[in-house]
Amino acid sequence: MIKSELVIVRDKNNNPNIMRRYEKCPHREVDPSIEGDAVHPMFIIRGKEVDAIYLPEYLSCMIDGIPYSLPMQPPATMMDFDSVVECHRRKGDGWHCMTAVEWQFIADLIRLRESAGAESMRGNTSFGCSHLAMGEKGIHPEGRNTITLTGSGPESWFLYDNKEGIADFVGNVWKHIAGIRLVNGRYQYIKDNDAAAPDCDLSRDSKEWADVLIDGKPLKVSVEDDEVTILATNEETGKEYGGDEWQNVGIDIDPIPDFVKALGIIPARHEGNREYFYADAEESECVPFRGGSYGSASYGGSSALILNYLRSYVRGNVGFFSAYYKVES
User: Fold this and answer.
1) Shortest CA distance to 179 belongs to which of 303, 263, 305?
2) Which helix (H) or strand (E) holds 107?
3) Residue 329: pLDDT above 80?
4) What does the pLDDT look like over 5-31, one tens digit per residue?
5) Are strands 174-176 and 318-320 parallel, antiparallel or unpaired?
6) Does residue 257 have a cis bond before it (omega within 30 degrees)?
């Protein structure tokens, strides 16, 4: 059973953030395809298990150069990846940009709820409305007709009922994610949840990045002649730019290793999945955006993944979530 509670977490300046504390649990609790009792990698940082990870209720807003998880605020945008990393360093030890394994933890919770009969999670995917239910609306900041204030949408834009659980996971703005990237078509990652550590080097030339290997072969994206395929190979692959709905992306991996599932590189639901995957297999480094934005329509969602922009990319439809864990002295 996954245990969580809504809490207020104060940063080093004693300012509040509305977060949800998730207790350490086995990986199989959120992904039934996982066998055994291994702890979810979200709770493993620098080789040690942590008792809990605090995930945000709201998209981050910026106040005096510090990110916060607060409701009814304009989400922070117009920040490149390195600026997002740096603003969390200023917030205090344990604060960090949401990582790939943290994102997938929530995505798996959404999938569990949907498999139990819950409605699909929606959000601002059509300039303030849900493209699936145009009567569902959020509140625009003054002078804007695209993004919506954090948590200002209806219950269906939250993970749980009664406007609880993470809001705006789907839509509103694309979200920066730490801990995975694409380098010349090769997937690279930072192991476990080490991307959350205060001393983790997330820079372009960091030695912490490692190729995602399956049976000793690097995991790659091949883009060629409008066909997109994900495969593990030592052979040369297509070096073009492109994208498609996940249902049309070739997945030449079976079985998918547990750590790859935890990274969210390949969606658990492939067939019939209209959410989008984009990749630039030639660029020297592409950092990920997830979840969709106010203009995504059916392309957005918990498995939507864009890997075709540089870490220097800045735009008004890209924001981020802030997460936290207690760092032992």
Assistant:
1) 263
2) helix 100-115
3) no
4) 999 999 999 999 999 999 999 999 999
5) parallel
6) no
